Amino acid sequence: MTTQPNPATILTDIMLAVFRVNGRLLEKGDQLVEPLNLTSARWQVLGAVALAGKPLSAPQIAEAMGITRQGAQKQLNKLEEDGFFEQRLNPRHERSPLYALTGLGNRAFAKAMALEAAWANGLVGGLPLQDLKKALQTLNAIHERLDSPVPKKGARP
């Protein structure tokens, strides 16, 4: 007689797999965008502003990308120094400027995304679409639960 796997044990295995995949994605991402004078961390910060379609503050970038404000600020300082971003006045917060992509920043992000598209197409080959959709759905559900309070033992949802 076989017993059903414990869902918490499976979730732990998923978490470990996500950590391993994240590490490899950062490593491969660094290699992918190195010719553009970027790292995965810098690409992530560029992406936050590019995908928002408007200038953002360091805290907004950090929240959008799931990184610390200090981590976002560190990358912003380097990116601004290299000409990828420019600071703008933030009418809502005097001491927290907005960061806008420069022409160089927009071009670098577009090139990075073109490289990523080719890379992603190679990675996805042979993986069933339904499996990919289910993985995304499951990871999004876990993400939402991480932002919710943990129910007390024995409490009903």
Automatic annotation (TrEMBL):
SUPFAM superfamilies from the xrefs?
A: Winged helix' DNA-binding domain
What GO terms describe the biological role, i.e. biological process, of this protein? response to stress
Q: What residue stretches are annotated with the HTH marR-type domain?
A: 11-148
Q: Which PROSITE patterns match?
A: HTH_MARR_2 (PS50995)
* InterPro entries in alphabetical order: ArsR-like_HTH, HTH_MarR-typ, MarR/SlyA-like, WH-like_DNA-bd_sf, WH_DNA-bd_sf
Q: Where is the signal peptide?
A: none
Please name the GO terms that the record assigns under molecular function: DNA-binding transcription factor activity
* Pfam families attached to this UniProt entry: MarR_2
Q: What PANTHER family does the entry give?
A: HTH-TYPE TRANSCRIPTIONAL REPRESSOR YETL, TRANSCRIPTIONAL REGULATOR, MARR FAMILY
Please identify the protein, giving its name as recorded.
Transcriptional regulator
* Source organism per UniProt: mine drainage metagenome
